[in-house]
Amino acid sequence: xxxxxxxxxxxINDLSGYGRCSLTVALPILSAMRVQCCPVPTxxxxxxxxxxxxxxxxxxxxxxxxxxKWKELGLTFDGIATGFLGSExxxxxxxxxxxxxxxxxxxxxxxxxxxxxxxxxxxxTPAMCSRMKSLAAMADILTPNLTExxxxxxxxxxxxxxxxxxxxxxxxARRLQLLGPSSVVITGIRQxxxxxxxxxxxxKEVYFLKRLxxxxxxxxxxDVFSSIIAGGCIxxxxxxxxxxxxxxxVKDCIIRSGQLQVPVQNGVCFEELLGELCQKAKD
Length: 283
Hints:
Blueprint: E1 7-16, H1 23-32, E2 35-45, E3 56-58, H2 60-73, E4 79-82, H3 88-101, E5 107-110, E6 115-116, E7 119-120, H4 126-136, E8 141-142, H5 146-152, H6 166-177, E9 183-191, E10 194-201, E11 207-212, H7 221-234, H8 239-259, H9 274-280
Parallel strand pairs: 1-2, 1-4, 4-5, 5-8, 8-9
Antiparallel strand pairs: 2-3, 6-7, 9-10, 10-11
């Protein structure tokens, strides 16, 4: 029997029972990446908020007691990843958790979910933005979309993403690194017929990962992407290799979802392709 240490990641995000996003994406994707996913729920929803009706239960008041029991058990994690956080208090709880559990070997991935297409979410108040900057400073890997990158840097959003030159995108990534994270991935920038991800890893040359845009935009694809990034990086992969796999897998999932006529609000049917992800994640 192999004595190889299996990696564990604490995944902080909401749990939506239907719609394929957040923890219901992270759990199977990280498992396919051969990483144990240990969830910390921030809220419980019957389905994601893209549906016309849904049940919502805020878990903020339970998070500290939940995390305290992990401390009492003396648990350790190879990675800590954050997704949607709905309040300033949740951000502070997560920051305290990172301080309590981070070791020199622990990778922290922050997905600063605050808006999309130039529009901040309703929860993204000025106070929330300030708190999110302080959380981003604790990240090893930061994965904002273009809207979130602009919010973090107090910059106006350019509605014409396709007009942004590589030099401008590189400058954005480098400025985000100055907030604290050593690695940054600006995700899902639409440029003509391509989707571009901008990768800055330490002082290495900034890399532009391009994939042909396919199908319709679907909820949960960012969760698939960031989960593969997190799983790969805590297993010791370099950022570029993890991002290449994530981009390819998301594209394949979108194509397959279209073939099966899965409604857009139901996300991507990644279950159809998990076997392939397992194979690609082999040592």
